[in-house]
Design a protein that fits this description.
The structure is a homotetramer of 141-residue chains. The first copy, chain A, has 141 residues and is α+β, with helices and mostly antiparallel strands. Chain A has 2 helices and 8 strands. Chain A has helices at 4-14, 49-68; strands at 20-26, 29-34, 41-42, 46-47, 75-83, 93-102, 106-115, 123-130. In chain A, a hairpin with a 7-residue loop joins β7 and β8 (123-130). The first copy, chain A, is globular. Chains in contact: A-B, A-C, A-D, B-C, B-D, C-D. Chains A and B meet through β3, α2 and β5 of A and β3, α2 and β5 of B. β5 (75-83) of chain A pairs antiparallel with β5 of chain B, so a sheet runs across the interface.
């Protein structure tokens, strides 16, 4: 399976704006982290919802790569987010994904998002990815 | 109630990266539009999921402003997105929101997202915003 | 494609407790109706949430049958419900499903639920069904 | 806070069909269990989706009672379920709820559902309840 570095290298190439780092990947999970600056804030001096959604979506993508290899064409089919608490403006966001199922065609996981240094999650996500039947587009490792 | 221009002026001030335009607002709904460039794409030459989520979240925010005025502290509490079809890379995305309920403390709406010029939606969202009890933070018009 | 009566006959056989009737099916949609009695109520003199969830799930199942035939092994993979207003205790519930996508392996639709005679929906559902690749178990018409 | 027996007594009175037992309640969580018979099955010899939805909704209701007392008018506002594996027909279903947030007006929790005796969940739910501002309708303990 791909290393953290290999997945980061793929993501940096695949996305024009890739602002996160992978803290950990493997064991049916992944943790990603993103510094928060002005561009990620919204009224109220808090992190914007779309920033949290994007991080959760990324954490799922990385966790799936950790299980089946780098499959760029894995795509989100459903994502459900609940916002629980107001994130602080001056801490990074950490997204911790645990996969609940990795099937042949679908993978489902949950993601808890935190303001770094705080144990109470700011948001919770459940998301489903569709895995292409044929991993021919898979980057060989 | 605020005009399209007043809401756009607020959004341009409130967000560092505000890349959308408001096509219409009012009658318990809103339509927003965003040009798609390299920064919004993902592997497969299609629009990234987080771009669609961000636009749906924005369409809900704008539609609510059209009903209760510009209330910056309205915040998303839940958002559920289903991806239906692959958006094309070379068309703008248009998000059409219809509110289903505007209560005292919660507003709920659905958003259909389209590749401009195509009648079949690429994604569908249902989202809930929490409206602060006290609109003191409301910008006066 | 199967008629309303054929689908009702299948459902009455397949489920021990089948308490609904099919009002309409076809054109990528379905409408189902259920009388409300003591067994469907919850504290507050209103229809219980699970009653509404079950009806939405059924409306999706019937709508899919209307498109691809009676495929008993079509199964729900995701269902998201938002409760909008309190249903009245003394009216039937009517669930109106519109399919948004009927693909080879997934079908996605939305369902609006009403207290019969009232135009404002009491709940809104988006649900996804997985369609078995091979409709061998499909009942021939 | 109410005991398991007090909550069961309330539920048996409040619902005509109350087919579950409370295994545990407290510590921001609850576990409920239901025997599976013919009435809970669907085509394929598996437990019906609405049975799982109803149990998840109940587990949330009970878990909230364990935190704030028996508040009958707590009502679901959103529920999202993902089906992960096919439940077996001949085992009870066990639903384990953990609350993620218990605020003044909203409580949010997740529920993992199992075929009794199997460690892999058959379904996963995230749900939100609205808590009435004024617990006057709360049953005194």
């Amino acid at each position: 399976m791909p290393t953290k570095g290999e997945i980061e290298a793929f993501l940096a190439t695949a996305f024009t704006r890739f602002d996160s780092t992978i803290v950990a990947v493997g064991n049916r999970g992944a943790t990603v982290r993103r510094e928060i600056g002005e561009a990620e804030l919204r009224p109220g001096g808090t992190v914007s919802g779309p920033t949290l959604m994007a991080m959760a979506d990324l954490a799922l993508y990385v966790a799936i790569f950790g299980e089946i290899g780098i499959v760029p064409m894995a795509v989100t089919t459903n994502l459900n987010i609940n916002f629980l608490r107001k994130p602080v403006a001056n801490a990074a966001i950490v997204a911790v994904c645990k996969l609940m199922k990795v099937g042949k065609s679908l993978a489902i996981g949950e993601v808890s998002l935190y303001s770094e240094g705080d144990d109470d999650p700011v948001a919770h996500v459940v998301g489903t990815y569709s895995i292409p039947r044929n991993h021919q587009e898979k980057i060989k490792e």
